[in-house]
Every structure is written in structure tokens, then in C-alpha cells.
């Protein structure tokens, strides 16, 4: 039992942030996401014997996704809760430290809020692919394993999600 616990702790527990992020994007409620992730970790522990090694993140995110869909079925809703993404400070894309004025902070928060809201408005199949690729940075193959769909379907959904997001954000300007 200690060996299995050590393996679980080493391979699965480091994926907690990714699990919460996916759950939060899908259920769009931070408290529900915590419950979903807790349920997913309990299921992951229960079925850890079926995990045959490799990268545990796609395996766990598949469980999280299934738990999210179970939550949807229990709640009978998927689009009623507002999504809020935490603000992150730090260097800009070119590596230079940003000069933060109240105006730039406000503009950045408004842009992030618009993008978060637009992602939240995507239908779940497109939202989950976009989150797994762009936020969790999973490969197409890992996303295909998480969602149990062909790699080509991942690519087409991701393309469509990006297009929908682009049009949604373009309509707001």
C-alpha cells in the first residue's frame, strides 16, 4: 500500500492545478470545481491500479472531465454560472517587466475578462479542447486520450473553437 501511495503522490498529486483549472473552466464555478476535483481524485485513487504508467496528467484529466459531466447531469445546467479567472502579474511576452499604471492594469483586466467570458460562452466540447490545449498545453494526442476522440477531431474542434472565440471577441470591439 505504501508503494502505491508513494507512486500516486509522485505521479498524480502534481497534476492538481491542471485538474482544478480544467474543472473550473468546464463547470464555471470555483466551489463546484473543487468538489469535482475532489471526486476525481477519489476516483483516481480508487482506480490507480488501472493506470499503467506514462504521463498521469492526461489520465487524470480524463477522470476530471468525466466528473464534470457527472456534475452537469446532477445540476442539469452548464451555462448559468459566471466564470472568473485570476489575474496574473509578471513579465510581458518579450520578457521585459511591465510598467504597471492604473490604466494598464485596468485595460489588462478588462481584456482578460472579455477573453474569459468569451471562452465561457463556447459550447462545452469546444471549450474543453481549447482549455486543454491553450491553458493546460496538452498535445493533440493527449487531448485525444483525455476526451476519447480521434486526433483529427481534436484538431477540428480546436480550429472551430479558435474561430468562434475570434468572432466573439471581434464582435465586442
Automatic annotation (TrEMBL):
TM segment ranges: none
Family: Belongs to the sigma-70 factor family. ECF subfamily.
Pfam families found in the cross-reference section: Sigma70_r2, Sigma70_r4_2
Upper taxonomic lineage: Bacteria, Pseudomonadati, Pseudomonadota, Betaproteobacteria, Burkholderiales
NCBIfam families: sigma70-ECF (TIGR02937)
Claim: DNA-binding is one of the keywords in the record: yes
PANTHER family noted in UniProt: RNA POLYMERASE ECF-TYPE SIGMA FACTO (PTHR43133), RNA POLYMERASE SIGMA FACTOR RFAY-RELATED (PTHR43133:SF25)
Keywords, comma-separated and alphabetical: DNA-binding, Sigma factor, Transcription, Transcription regulation
Superkingdom, natural source: Bacteria
RNA polymerase sigma factor 70 region 4 type domain residues: 114-165
Domain RNA polymerase sigma-70 region residue range list: 16-77
The name this protein goes by in its record: RNA polymerase sigma factor
Amino acid at each position: 500500500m505504501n508503494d502505491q501511495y508513494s507512486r500516486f503522490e509522485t505521479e498524480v498529486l502534481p497534476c492538481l492545478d491542471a485538474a482544478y483549472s480544467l474543472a473550473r473552466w468546464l463547470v464555471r464555478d470555483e466551489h463546484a470545481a473543487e468538489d469535482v476535483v475532489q471526486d476525481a481524485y477519489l476516483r483516481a485513487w480508487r482506480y490507480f491500479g488501472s493506470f499503467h504508467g506514462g504521463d498521469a496528467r492526461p489520465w487524470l484529466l480524463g477522470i476530471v472531465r468525466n466528473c464534470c459531466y457527472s456534475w452537469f447531469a446532477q445540476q442539469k445546467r452548464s451555462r448559468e454560472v459566471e466564470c472568473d479567472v485570476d489575474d496574473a502579474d509578471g513579465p510581458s511576452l518579450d520578457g521585459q517587466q511591465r510598467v504597471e499604471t492604473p490604466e494598464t492594469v485596468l485595460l489588462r483586466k478588462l481584456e482578460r475578462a472579455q477573453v474569459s467570458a468569451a471562452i465561457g460562452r463556447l459550447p462545452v466540447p469546444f471549450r474543453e479542447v481549447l482549455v486543454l490545449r491553450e491553458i493546460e498545453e496538452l498535445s493533440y494526442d493527449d487531448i485525444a486520450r483525455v476526451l476519447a476522440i480521434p486526433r483529427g477531431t481534436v484538431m477540428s474542434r480546436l480550429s472551430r473553437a479558435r474561430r468562434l472565440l475570434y468572432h466573439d471577441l471581434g464582435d465586442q470591439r
